[in-house]
Amino acid sequence: MRKILLLAVMLVIWFLPGIPVSADTQEEILAQSGADSIAVDEQTGSFLEDHAISFTDPQSVLTLSPKELLCSMWNTFRAQLAAPLRLFFTLGLVVICSAFTSGLGDTISDRGLSGAYGFLVAMVAVSVLLTPMEQCFFMVSDTMESGSRFMLSFAPVLSSILAAGGGVVSASVYQLAVFSLAELAVQLTCMYLMPLLRILLALGIMDAVHPDFSFGSIIRGVKRVAQWGLGLVMTLFVGLQTVQGMVSASADTVATKATKFMLSSCVPVVGGAVSDAYTTLRGSVGVLRSGVGGVGILALGAMVLPPILLLGLYRLSVLAAGTLAELAGVRSLSKLLHSLEQVLSLALGMLCTFVFLLLLSTAIVIIAGGTGG
After folding, report:
1. Where are the alpha helices (DSSP H) in the chain?
2. What angle do CA 86, 89, 95 make, to 5 degrees?
């Protein structure tokens, strides 16, 4: 009797129509992940539009050639070069006039009048530098906030794609890391970074205009401590992300293999086909993950490249003007410019560290997410 029932069940299964294995297409996965709602600023949107790249078509990033990318970077560099050059020539003119008035002051026996020349020179340089310095401070704060907003809208999209391909653990680890870093960057910028930079700017001005005060060592000390702190944060974050990426990738691999084994073992007759379909789906989602991640990295780079270039060029202009003032023997102006160069260097280091950590976390999850079996 059992043999007859078993034979009947086998005949029914044999003559049943093929069991369809349905899977979301890439377009459906992108639509459900919210890729069309990722927030980018106008400049980044124009860059992506000019190169026909979009988050809804991740494979469009393959159309961007290295020559086009280098040309775009060169055009960005040229666009940011005018203001720093103007600042350098203005400071150079101040240095030349200061050297001339300093020579006149040395011919006067009144040392108080000679000191007044130094104070006047420093204040003229301060009036020239205040607007660019404030622009740099605002640019650092605005870039970190814009980058945080972009990553807060981009991380859920990439995490949902990772989860759709079986990388549930990797998705949760990545989203937690990006959310924590973005919120921490915004809080530190508002509460500590901007006040610290403005305090150092004030100390640099006082160090230049008042010969009895010497705040240059304080500025250098704060910069050195900040550099050590940034290096420690980068080391800890990179190490933690690397370890978590490897562990989460291993956990996702185990879960994927267990799922494939269950499908092939527990589903009668078509279990192997279902398992192969699941493998195909994971491969398709892997392509989608790499494409969306690549577009996200490109968009973040296009967003932060102009501010980083402008800040770096301003720093070079101030450094070159400070060297010129030192060669001309204008001590007060040289102290001012070297102190402000230290401040700009600190701001540039903080911004580059923030961007590097965001890019690295995305790159690690893309690479680790593709190691699963």
Report:
1. 2-15, 26-33, 42-50, 66-106, 111-164, 168-188, 194-209, 216-266, 271-328, 331-369
2. 140
Beta-carbon contacts of 75 under 8 Å, excluding residues fewer than 6 positions away, are none
- Give me 96's structure tokens: 């030349």
Q: In 3D, which of 106, 204, 158 has the Cα closest to residue 369?
A: 158
Return d(Cα 94, Cα 108) in angstroms, integer. 21
- The confidence score (pLDDT) of residue 20 equals 39
Query: In this structure, are residues 249 and 368 in contact, taking their beta carbons and an 8 Å threshold?
Result: yes
Distance of CA 185 to the CA centre of its chain: 11
CB 28 within 8 A of CB 22: no
How far is the C-alpha of 209 from the C-alpha of 215, rounded, in Å?
Answer: 11
Q: Given this model, what pLDDT does residue 2 score?
A: 46
What is the rounded (10 degree) CA torsion for 27, 29, 30, 35?
160
CA–CA dist 98, 116 (Å, integer): 12
The whole-number mean pLDDT for each consecutive block of 10 residues of the chain, a chain of 373 residues, reads 44 38 57 74 84 80 83 90 92 83 55 61 82 89 86 82 72 78 79 85 81 75 84 80 70 58 53 52 66 85 91 93 86 85 90 86 72 51
Beta bridge partners of 57: 54
Q: With b meaning 16 or more CB within 10 Å and e meaning fewer, what string describes 101-134?
A: bbeebeeeeeeeebeebbeebbebbbebbeebbe
Q: Positive or negative, the Cα torsion across 240, 241, 243, 247?
A: positive
- How many beta carbons lie within 10 A of that of residue 161, not counting itself? 27
**DSSP readout, 26-87?**
HHHHHHHHTGGG----HHHHHHHHHTT-BTTBGGGGGG--HHHHHHHHHHHHHHHHHHHHHH
CA gap 252, 233 in Å, rounded = 28
